Q: What sequence folds into this?
């Protein structure tokens, strides 16, 4: 756990979150500022700063994040219409440096995203 990391503090229960899925190695909770009717963040419970670090540490953990997102998409009734995003680095819009997979759904999306 990183003491000054927001998402580590959510994992530790120090900051409240609306948890939708709690697995051994991953946690899924609703984004506090949702950009779609369904906007869930799936994170590793262990502190790793981004998706590349998760891959380098343990590729099966990256698979667990995707599996968690796909399972939440199903439980949210999104069918096969949803978007999965890892913002990686400040230039790509990453603001929290604890890896998180965005699951967005329940509305249409533009491509390219801008
Ligand atoms: P990023 O911009 O790093 O890809 O995404 C960070 C996400 O975390 C944003 O969508 C933001 O709304 C969300 N977020 C920031 N602080 C909190 C918080 O305290 N609780 C929850 N549930 N989400 C947060
Ligand atoms: Zn962290």
A:
């Amino acid at each position: 756990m990183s003491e000054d990391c927001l998402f580590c503090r959510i994992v530790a229960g120090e900051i409240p979150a609306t948890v939708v899925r709690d697995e051994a190695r991953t946690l899924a909770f609703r984004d506090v500022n949702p950009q779609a009717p369904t906007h869930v963040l799936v994170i590793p419970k262990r502190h790793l700063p981004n998706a590349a670090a998760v891959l380098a540490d343990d590729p099966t953990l990256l698979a667990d994040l995707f599996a968690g997102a796909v399972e939440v998409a199903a439980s949210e009734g999104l069918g096969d219409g949803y978007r999965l995003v890892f913002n990686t680095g400040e230039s790509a819009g990453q603001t929290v440096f604890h890896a998180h997979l965005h699951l967005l759904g329940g509305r249409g999306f533009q491509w390219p995203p801008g």
Summary: The chain is about 25% helix and 20% strand.
